[in-house]
């Protein structure tokens, strides 16, 4: 089992660890998931996300490569922007969902899910055209996420210049060494993700923590990361999607540019009609619908829950489900341990932050 | 708390037949957000699951340390399941008319020993 370089710090700060994506990661700290969740919604939370994978793709043809490997369109993308995309197989199934950072048209960083690093690297290497240079930086790069309405003030104490727009990034410096700061995250709040070489992340983390006391800060684990992303209806690989999920069944069509020239999976996605769709679910009856619970329309099973929890912000149970596109949704129930709980389809995201200013 | 008996699966039962989970179990589960209890009149069996406790992260079965008929359930938990996190030994789940105890229930000293 791998550990991130922040393991000792987080262990000393009360982290409770579980295995995730091949890494030993904190699921929560002593204050508990609800307190961590609320800190991110109202103040600021700090996450170790060093388990995530980082790749570098360089070369004259780099722009062509990202356009061919991933579903989004990167041709009109300004330098310094970040874009979400899917990586599909030839059948249109999802190999991974990821972020693409454009340094320039010859240089892109790609950030992928921890559990998919090996498979993504193999896939990209076997589909890369001659003349492009690919490096897997995952073992050398660490990352922390600073998320919440106070993230800008807190991060700004260390780094006077921050990326201004959401989904943009800049190069910065810490102790004379180059780092990357992006205005991104997986919580539905404003926030930053800071990438550095492994050893440097420890002093960055210490410095942020030292300056964070006046901000209503909490260290956060994977538990809060999950409730936060679920309220924001962000899909999680391995739950909402996998290699057998057709990319067009996810409600992510804004990130699948079917009109652009050739990309892997395009033919299948144009030919195959989506049979399922991703929907937001709100429970009417008391209880919690969790992953794999069957969803019924009347007496017919029409799909299953892919993620579910009690929403700390809304105080109700919410879930995402994969259901048949054609199914009627006026009388839905979910099977929870043999009991049928009434649910209804609701708009996503479940929670949307109020933008200030 | 001196008349409490404890199970190896971290439940307690007191002299009046009230049954709950221990502070250790509550702490391990984390923030409790929903409790599913049996109905009054249901028969429950020692060593068998009779309730489910949902924390933010997962659902846990609760095993009964006694056999008997449920004569009351703690309705307060319906609106405030977090009472179990706050004080696991006053936030009972059900009250049981006990006909038998699970084998191997422990006193506090023996249970404290088990936790370590």
Structural class per helix/strand content of chain A?
alpha+beta
Class of the largest domain in chain A, according to the CATH hierarchy?
A: Alpha Beta
CATH class of chain B: Mainly Beta
Mean pLDDT of chain B: 95
Distance between the termini of chain A: 45 Å
Task: Detail the poorly predicted runs of chain A.
Answer: none
Say how many strands of chain A there are: 20
Q: What is the helix/strand order of chain B?
A: EEEHEEEEEHHEH
Under the CATH scheme, the architecture of the largest domain in chain A is 2-Layer Sandwich
CATH topology heading of the largest domain in chain A:
Gyrase A, domain 2
CATH fold name of chain B: OB fold (Dihydrolipoamide Acetyltransferase, E2P)
Rg calc of chain B: 13 Å
Biggest sheet: strand arrangement of chain A: 11-12-13-10-4-14
Q: Based on the structure given, which CATH architecture of chain B is correct? A: Beta Barrel
Strand % of chain B is 35-45%
Radius of gyration of chain A: 20 Å
Protein described:
The complex is a heterodimer of chains A (357) and B (116). Chain A has three domains: 2-52 and 139-231, Probable tRNA modification gtpase trme, domain 1 (Gyrase A, domain 2); 54-136, Aminomethyltransferase beta-barrel domains (Alpha-Beta Plaits); 275-346, Elongation Factor Tu (Ef-tu), domain 3 (Beta Barrel), CATH 2.40.30.110. Chain A is built from eight helices and 20 strands. Chain A has helices at residues 7-12, 33-42, 62-69, 117-127, 151-158, 198-211, 222-231, 266-271; strands at residues 2-3, 16-20, 23-28, 44-48, 53-58, 82-88, 94-104, 107-112, 133-136, 141-147, 169-174, 177-182, 191-197, 217-220, 276-283, 294-297, 300-310, 317-324, 332-336, 339-346. In chain A, β2 and β3 (23-28) form a beta hairpin. In chain A, α2 (33-42) crosses α7 (222-231). The longest helix of chain A has 14 residues, at 198-211. Chain B has helices at 23-29, 76-79, 83-86, 108-115; strands at 5-6, 11-13, 18-21, 32-36, 43-44, 49-55, 59-63, 66-73, 94-101. Chain B is built from four helices and nine strands; from the N terminus they run βββαβββββααβα. Chain B has a single domain (17-103), classed as Beta Barrel (OB fold (Dihydrolipoamide Acetyltransferase, E2P)), CATH 2.40.50. Chain B has a six-stranded antiparallel sheet with strand order 1-2-3-9-8-5. Classes of the chains: A alpha+beta (357), B alpha+beta (116). At the A-B interface, α7 of A face β4 and β6 of B.
């Amino acid at each position: 089992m791998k550990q991130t370089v922040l393991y000792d710090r987080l262990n000393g700060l009360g982290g409770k660890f579980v295995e995730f994506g091949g890494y030993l990661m904190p699921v929560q700290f002593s204050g508990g998931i609800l307190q961590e969740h609320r800190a991110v919604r109202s103040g600021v939370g700090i996450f170790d996300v060093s388990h995530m994978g980082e790749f570098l793709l360089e070369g004259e043809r780099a722009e062509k490569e990202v356009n061919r490997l991933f579903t989004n369109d990167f041709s009109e993308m300004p330098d310094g922007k970040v874009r979400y995309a899917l990586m599909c197989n030839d059948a249109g199934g999802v190999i991974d969902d990821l972020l693409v950072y454009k340094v320039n048209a010859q240089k892109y960083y790609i950030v992928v899910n921890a559990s998919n690093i090996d498979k993504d690297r193999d896939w990209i290497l076997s589909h890369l055209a001659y003349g492009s240079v690919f490096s897997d930086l995952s073992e050398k790069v660490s990352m922390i996420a600073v998320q919440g309405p106070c993230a800008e003030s807190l991060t700004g104490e260390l780094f006077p210049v921050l990326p201004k727009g959401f989904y943009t990034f800049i190069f910065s410096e810490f102790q004379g060494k180059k780092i990357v700061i992006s205005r991104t995250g997986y919580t539905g709040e404003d926030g930053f993700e800071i990438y550095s070489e492994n050893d440097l992340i420890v002093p960055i983390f210490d410095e942020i923590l030292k300056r964070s006391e006046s901000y209503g800060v909490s260290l956060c684990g994977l538990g809060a990361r999950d409730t936060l992303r679920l309220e924001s209806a962000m899909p999680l690989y391995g739950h909402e999607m996998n290699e057998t999920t057709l990319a067009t069944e996810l409600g992510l069509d804004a990130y699948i540019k079917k009109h652009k020239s050739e990309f892997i999976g395009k033919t299948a996605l144009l030919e195959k009609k989506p049979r399922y769709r991703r929907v937001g679910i709100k429970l009417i009856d008391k209880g919690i619908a969790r992953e794999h619970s069957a969803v019924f329309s009347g007496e017919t099973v029409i799909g299953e829950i892919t993620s579910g929890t009690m929403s700390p912000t809304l105080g109700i149970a919410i879930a995402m489900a994969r259901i048949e596109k054609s199914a009627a949704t006026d009388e839905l129930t979910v099977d929870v341990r043999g009991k049928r709980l009434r649910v209804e389809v609701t708009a996503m995201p479940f929670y949307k932050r109020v933008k200030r200013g | 708390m001196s008349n409490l008996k404890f199970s190896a699966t971290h439940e307690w039962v007191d002299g009046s037949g009230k049954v709950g989970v221990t502070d250790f179990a509550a702490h391990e589960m984390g923030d409790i957000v929903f409790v599913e209890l049996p109905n009054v009149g249901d028969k429950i069996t020692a060593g068998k699951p009779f309730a489910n406790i949902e924390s933010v992260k997962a659902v846990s079965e609760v095993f009964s340390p006694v056999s008997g008929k449920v004569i009351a359930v703690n309705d307060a938990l319906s609106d405030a399941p977090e009472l179990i996190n706050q004080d696991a030994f006053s936030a009972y789940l059900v009250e049981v008319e006990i006909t038998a105890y699970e084998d191997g229930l422990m006193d506090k000293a023996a249970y404290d020993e088990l936790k370590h």
